Amino acid sequence: MPYIPKWIADSMESLLPSKFMNASVDSSVYISPEIKNIVFTANLKEVDFYPGAAVNFRISPNDFRHYTISSFDREAGTFEIIFHIHGNGPGSDLASQLKAGDHLKITVPGGRKLYHKEKERHFFFGDETSLSLYVALMQEMEKTGQSCTGVLELSEQNMEVPALLGFEAMVVLKIADHPAQQAISYLQSIAEQDTVLNSAFYLTGNVASVQEFRKTLKRMGVSSKNIMFQGYWAEGSAGL
């Protein structure tokens, strides 16, 4: 939902009240200079949720951006989102400005259901924009006892973030001119000694990186039905 006329956005909020919820910021903490965890409060009693569900924020009169929920507690009436504060767009600007006590209207959780709960093994690939999804899925897998691992390509200042968030993942340095190259090298190195290629794969984040990683998986014989992918952003494009 990248850009729509203001009158349509206004009409959505007024004519579809069941699709929106009133939320307030309970707390916000920077995990790193670019990564911010925000806890929201809302009435969640009648709100459906599944791992990987996302909400939409109206960030301007004409623009919405979607963000994945990392943690959801219906009884406590709280949910959390891990934001990437990159400074290159209105969504990032909004997240950087949100503070305790702020009130805003957000769509109810929805979006694609990526989680393949029938698989025993799971593998993640992504970047800073993928953190919320991975935390949500890993929390779910802790409940089910499933196996999960992954690799994240991150900027140098964010290399310690996964550990600070409390989950294990291989971390490689993001190289702008070579999307996913180091992550692919890591996958190839462990595929020689492991059964990782039998996993369900979740590829999110930068479109160019996702495409390269997906091509590699298919060349390695992984079935398309076991590859879930969703580009969150692309150089020069807005609204993904």
Number of domains: 2
Count of helical segments?
6
Largest sheet: 5 strands, antiparallel
Strand/helix succession: HEEEEEEHEEHEHEHEHE
Provide the structure class: alpha/beta
CATH architecture of the largest domain: 3-Layer(aba) Sandwich
How much β-strand is present in the residues? 25-35%
Low-pLDDT ranges: none
What's the CATH topology name of the largest domain? Rossmann fold
Question: How does the overall form come out from the CA principal axes?
Answer: globular
DSSP helix fraction = 25-40%
Beginning-to-end CA distance, first to last residue? 8 Å
CATH class of the largest domain: Alpha Beta
Instruction: Indicate the multimeric state.
Output: single chain
Query: CATH superfamily membership of the largest domain, which one?
Result: Nucleotide-binding domain of ferredoxin-NADP reductase (FNR) module
Strand order of the largest sheet: 5-6-2-1-7
What's the Cα radius of gyration? Answer: 18 Å
- The pLDDT mean sits at 89
Count the strands? 12
Q: What does this protein look like?
A:
Belongs to the SIP oxidoreductase family. GO terms for molecular function: oxidoreductase activity. The chain is α/β, with parallel strands linked by helices and 240 residues long. The protein has two domains: 102 residues, Elongation Factor Tu (Ef-tu), domain 3; 113 residues, Rossmann fold, CATH 3.40.50.80. 25% of the residues lie in helices and 32% in strands. It has six helices and twelve strands. The strands form three sheets. Strands 5-6-2-1-7 form a five-stranded antiparallel beta sheet. Strands 10-9-8-11-12 form a five-stranded parallel beta sheet, with helices on both faces. A two-stranded antiparallel ribbon has the order 3-4. Strand 8, helix 3 and strand 9 form a beta-alpha-beta unit. The radius of gyration is 18 Å and the shape is globular. The termini are close together. 35% of the residues are buried. The model has no long low-confidence stretch (mean pLDDT 89).
